[in-house]
Write the structure tokens for this entry.
Amino acid sequence: MQLTRRNFFKFMGVTGASAAAAPSSAQAWQSKAPPDPYGCLVDLTRCIGCRKCEEGCATVNKLPAPVKATCDCTVFEKKRRPDVNAFTTVNRYFSGKLDVLDKPSPTYVKVQCMHCQDPACVSACISGAITKKENGTVHYNVDRCIGCRYCMVACPFEIPAYEYHDPITPEVRKCTFCFDRISKEGGLPGCATICPVEAITFGKRETLLKLAKQRIKSDPNKYVDHIYGEKEVGGTSWLYVSSVPFSKLSFPELPETPSPKLAETIQHSLFSYLWSPILLFGFLGGMMYKFDKKDENTQDKGGA
Amino acid sequence: MDHKASPLNRKFWTPGVYVMLVFMIAGFLAILARFTGGIGYVSNLSAARPWGLWVGVDVATGVALAAGGFTTAALAHIFGRHSYEPVIRPALLTAMLGYTFVVLGLLVDIGRSWAIWKPVFFWNTNSVLFEVAMCVMVYLHVLYFEFIPIVVEQFKDKVRLPGILELLNGPIEMFLKVADVVASKMMWILIILGVVLSCMHQSSLGSLMLIAPTKIHPLWYTPIMPLLFLVSAFAVGYPMVVFETTLVTSSFKLDSEMSILTPLTRITIFLLGLYMLLKFGDMFVRGTYVYLLDGTYQTNSFIVEVLFGILVPWLMLVSTKIRQTRIGVFTAATMIVFGVALNRINVFIVGYTSPITEGGYFPSIVEIFVTLGLIATLMFIYRFVVTFLPVLQAAPEPITSEEVSS
């Protein structure tokens, strides 16, 4: 091995310096959530399942018109997920709740990207193609995307859809929170603009949380005491209130810890300033030097 | 052992090679279909199941099973165990080809293959995948550099191109000489760097799924997943060398090299034991043994992994009697390789479910053909390289009177 004494000490010097720097670099994980994002509050007790939001979304995002836009019945027979051509979908649930005439009463649920405060997809993205904007939007930039689909693996809400049938230039597709529209003063997302029953309220997340709490407090018999999205995976920009427990409406039960916390903590405590690889390099260099030296000695003895 | 590594110079086109060729053609057609119809046209991947066979086997398992390269290099070159040198070149070749095919598998799997260079310029240091990708990229280059001396050894002072290409003889000769000098001066850095990079990305592959706590079955989802991946890569390195050396030496009728393989398995007892300890310890600390008897296919896959991939081969190696027979060592090594491969498949495929759209996944026939085609191509190139370059060091078996006469 071509490891000279001088090279060895050079490396040991680097190693020592980086080892000294290591403890200060391993800081506790901190949320990168924007301080005052926008959000939407969806009140499921108000939604009548008209699917106007699907239509509004398709129009402003230049998507194909929603399936069976005028039919309010058969489309609900199957649960639909957001897709490459539909950033939001409304599904119907019969949870056992009865109306005044003792007939099963439906609950309609609008599904779209939740725009997490600390999004798993943003942390996962290999090339930083997905970012969390100051206004709350989880934004996708196709120019950086390589199509690894790690964002889809990471997303706890199963939201990013993928153009699987495009062989060369597929894109990840999901709700944009109408980024361009809400970036303008007074702009609203397409779905919130069109909703005829004000089931979707757009505003600052803080304000919406207060509003949600107020609604639950003013009518505790109507609402379950849970704002979905307040704490789930560290909080989401989109929030839901409901009269039916969320577990009956296909909302995933999620921990309060932000998804990226564990992986980022491990990555950064191990690899900040590459301290551990450099330390390992120094250690292995030392070993190599030691064993080389031993070989030389035994050879010398053999020769003498 | 004074016998030097040398090209095999055997007949290349054997029936086995033709079988490989058939799989290679099938794989090529499958890849062609992928790049004309799209991933959705050929695979069973979906929004709920974005990663399947290609990531689970071609990438994750491929990286794990290429661990023989850095583990043998560490043993022989860093910790001074020079008696293991005969297995270094084949292990290096396996690692080099293994990682090349990890990248080829990735090119098939990622949607925008032509954009694969983008992470080099657009960094996201929070992303585990970013770190894995950077390490794999640098390590692949390190492996190619480490291979230079083998090529130089074969062709230095022997470059004789025919016809008009004769003009190139001089420059190529010069290039080889420079490469030789540079490579041998830098070799110690490359060897250490290779080990460091391997430790980094072998462990980080285990961190990949930490971001999806609600999707991975609790039998596998543990904060020590990166440690388990690293230790299992250590543990599978030498068994992989045993597995491969035994296959190669019996297929080419070479000396079985048991004098090296038996001591390698002694190290494996320790490394595999450590892996087993961590795996069982993790199960008891987190209390996940409660799942063991629930009879689901996920749990059964875990039981098979731990029982036949860790416990049984470990007990086999502990027994001196089994350890000293060629078939015993080979069987145990094969089971360990199987166990680690199944672990990667379990973490990335079997143990993964989306809580929203439930429903299983089984790779499509085209996905399988792509994977088989890549493996066949890897074996084809391996055979080609050992036939014409000095990689294998084992002496031919002594009883060759018939072959000599033929």
Notes: The first strand of chain A starts at residue 38 and ends at 43. Chain A touches chain B through 65 residues (CB under 8 Å).
